[in-house]
Hints:
This protein is an all-alpha fold. The chain has helices at about 1-15, 25-55, 60-65, 65-90, 100-105.
Amino acid sequence: MILFSALYLTGLILAIVRRKRHPQVSVLAGIFFLARIIWSIGWLVAIITVYYVNNGQGAEEFARSQAFPSVVDLVFSVLLFIIMLYAIYGWRGQKLPPLSEILEQK
């Protein structure tokens, strides 16, 4: 989780630094990375809270308590990655030629 949070923080910094070059892309990327950082912190807090509330009772109770948040995390992650993909590719108006034409040029 720490590694991914560091990657998200790096992405957020890059989005802020490059905001003048591609403002719309930077805003969408910034939203993605900031939301992922907040979501990661929320998961960490939830895990610690559940562990202390259960007084370390065991993995089975912990797994049951995380079933619904895992589904929510999956849906939230998919939505965020759709935003990220749109930030990367959605702003480009130029259509690429078919792959066969690209391969013939080489």
